[in-house]
Design brief:
Length: 156
């Protein structure tokens, strides 16, 4: 059985902090991932398949940087806020919607699997769904559309 490496615990040791400082001073690393790869190689942080645990190592290094042990290179990518893809305008209101659910004809469930359908889904959820409005974001469940001859509904 492969022994699990305790990355954060190992790197928080005083001797390990000195090793990381020495690595940072000895070579010019372009980004945090390259530092993490070097630290993984030095401490033999690898998973069961023998691959370096770069993600866990970067996280531990960031936490140690936050408490002031050393300064890492700047992140290679600026963080961007992800925004849902939307339509340019609101989805038109349905017409001739039956008063009773039993009167709906030609109802079909359609998986939202294209950019166009995703934009419709996002627009309707962001403008009209009370839970989405209350939470301030879109649900992560797989969206589907119900379509009938007269109207379109979305569900998840």
């Amino acid at each position: 059985m492969h022994q699990q490496n305790q990355i954060k615990r190992t790197l928080a040791l005083p001797d390990s902090i000195e090793v990381v400082r020495a690595l940072l001073n000895a070579e010019a690393y372009k980004n945090r991932a390259s530092v993490s790869k070097a630290v993984c190689q030095h401490f033999n942080f690898s998973d069961a398949r023998g691959r370096p645990q770069i993600g866990g190592c970067v996280k531990a290094l960031r936490e140690l940087e936050r408490v002031g042990h050393f300064v890492l290179p700047a992140p290679s990518k600026a963080k961007t806020l992800k925004k849902p893809r939307r339509l340019d305008c609101a989805v038109p209101n349905p017409v001739e919607v039956p008063a009773q659910a039993g009167d709906v004809r030609g109802l079909a469930l359609v998986k939202v699997d294209s950019v166009d359908l995703m934009r419709i889904w996002n627009e309707m959820m962001l403008r009209e769904h009370p839970q989405v409005l209350a939470l301030g974001g879109l649900p992560t469940a797989l969206p589907h559309q119900f379509r009938s001859r007269l109207a379109r509904w979305l569900c998840f």
